[in-house]
Amino acid sequence: MTKSDNSTECSDQQFTSVDFTDVPPEFSEAYDCLFEGCNFQEVDLAHSKFNDCEFRHCNFSITKIANSVFRNCKFVGCKALGVNWSSAQRVENCSFTECNLTSGILMHRDLRNFVFEDSILIDVDFSSANMQRAQFANCDLSGATFRNTNLSRADFSTAKNYDIDPKINILAKAKFSMPEAVSLLSGLGIELV
Fold first, then answer.
1. Prediction pTM value
2. Could you check whether the bond before residue 25 is cis, i.e. omega within 30 degrees of 0?
3. Which end of the chain is more exposed for a tag (fewer CB within 10 A), N or C?
4. Residue ranges for the chain with pLDDT beneath 50
């Protein structure tokens, strides 16, 4: 780790089964690091920066990330219940595979090209997010909120349980598949018999 001004940096390090709830991170910036089986639950990561990091099987539930940065990060098998991603300064070019983001907030975020794969996105709020070309592969979107969300070219072809109103979202060239796509009609006041 190196010290620069008021921040401490770490790079190319591996953290395995570290419980950051007991000992908060000694760094404020991480580059190319691997976090495996780490516990960040309810930890205050405000103003932290994570660049090109991978998080495997970590717990981020109710973690505070105000003014933090997550850039080019991969989350695999992570639990991040109730995280307010909207409070972060930046969340860019990240992917979530086999993650549980239940009750997360991703409002007003630029989530273009984000990949959500085999993930639980129950009750996640995507209101006013730019989700062009986002992928929702095999994701459960029960109760997820899409309001004034740009979903142009987004791929929902293998997603399930979504409720998206085409009148208040941009869906140009978005991909959907049957029978789930029938749910798009509910916002149009159409009655299927």
1. 0.90
2. no
3. C
4. 1-5
